[in-house]
Amino acid sequence: MQVNVHQAKSQLSRLIERALAGEEVIIARNNEPTVRLEVIYEARRKRNLGTLKGFVKYMAEDFDEPLDDFKDYS
Question: For residue 13, what are the domain limits?
Fold first, then answer.
């Protein structure tokens, strides 16, 4: 995405979040790309494992059994 300097000033927090999410953010002056907002590797968010713990309420006993459609490939 490309924004002009005025937009970047008023939406900096939102642009930072988009950059952290992996989106390329370019800041332009007079419609000329001038600066790229880039994430510093150490600043990337750490993965938070286990955030959906308890989300699955039921799982069938044969959940990980081979599917009938793929018997020919066994």
Answer: 1-40
Burial 9-45 (b: 16+ CB within 10 A, else e): eeeeeebeebbeeeeebebeeeeeeeeebeeeeeeee
Count of the separate structural domains present in the chain: 1
Q: What is the CATH number of the domain that holds 34?
A: 3.40.1620.10
pTM for this predicted structure: 0.53
Asked whether residue 52 is domain-assigned, the answer is no
Q: What is the pLDDT of residues 8-60, one digit of tens each?
A: 999 999 999 999 888 999 999 999 999 999 888 766 667 788 888 888 888 89
